Amino acid sequence: MTRLEIYNKYLNILLELLRARYNNSGLRASGNYEGQLEKKIENNSLKILGAAYSEQMENGRRAGAWTPKNVLISWIETKQGLPSFFKENKEVAAFLIARKHFREGIKVPNEHNEGRVVSGALEEFEVKFLPQMVKELGQFYITELTTVVRTAFAA
């Protein structure tokens, strides 16, 4: 297995852990979070890119900033289980939510979001899969180095 294949294998595992924690958290509305998760490999740099609101979903947000109305309206349109008032009065509901966010911020954990969607997945990956990844990469580098040494002595 090549280094790139090992990276891809374990980034795919991490993506699945993030998706599973997100889907089990009850935070799904539009599904945009899950759809925006992607892996990126540049040389030896491994990244998971995601939704801009991952930080707020994980840690909440401070008071004093307005949540964009169009984001809230989109959330109202797609979120299942909201009272009918929200669906029937999207503009008013979006304003009320934005005002609450502005005044109070969003505390996480809370009754609707226990948090740890991202950090919990990272911790699970670190405990269950990172040692395996390191072992596989170690074997890859040993094989690669052995080939280099044998080639050098064969010349």
Provide a brief overview of the structure:
With 155 residues, the protein is mainly α.
Which key phrases capture this entry?
155 residues; mainly alpha; two-stranded antiparallel ribbon; 2 strands
Number of helices: 8
Shape: elongated
According to DSSP, the number of beta strands is 2
Low-confidence stretches: none
Helix content: 55-70%
Distance between the termini: 26 Å
Estimate the strand proportion: 5-15%
- Mean pLDDT equals 92
Report on the biggest sheet: 2 strands, antiparallel
- Coarse structural class: mainly alpha
> Within the largest sheet, what's the order of strands?
1-2
Order of helices and strands: HHEEHHHHHH
As a whole number of angstroms, the C-alpha radius of gyration is 22 Å
Explained architecture:
The structure is a single chain. With 155 residues, this protein is mainly α. Helix content is 65%, strand content 6%. The chain is built from eight helices and two strands, in the order ααββαααααα. A two-stranded antiparallel ribbon has the order 1-2. Strand 1 and strand 2 form a beta hairpin. Helix 4 packs across helix 6. The radius of gyration is 22 Å and the shape is elongated. The two termini are 26 Å apart. The model has no long low-confidence stretch (mean pLDDT 92).
Note the topology.
Elements: H1 3-25, H2 32-36, E1 38-42, E2 45-49, H3 54-59, H4 69-78, H5 84-88, H6 90-104, H7 117-128, H8 130-154
Antiparallel strand pairs: 1-2
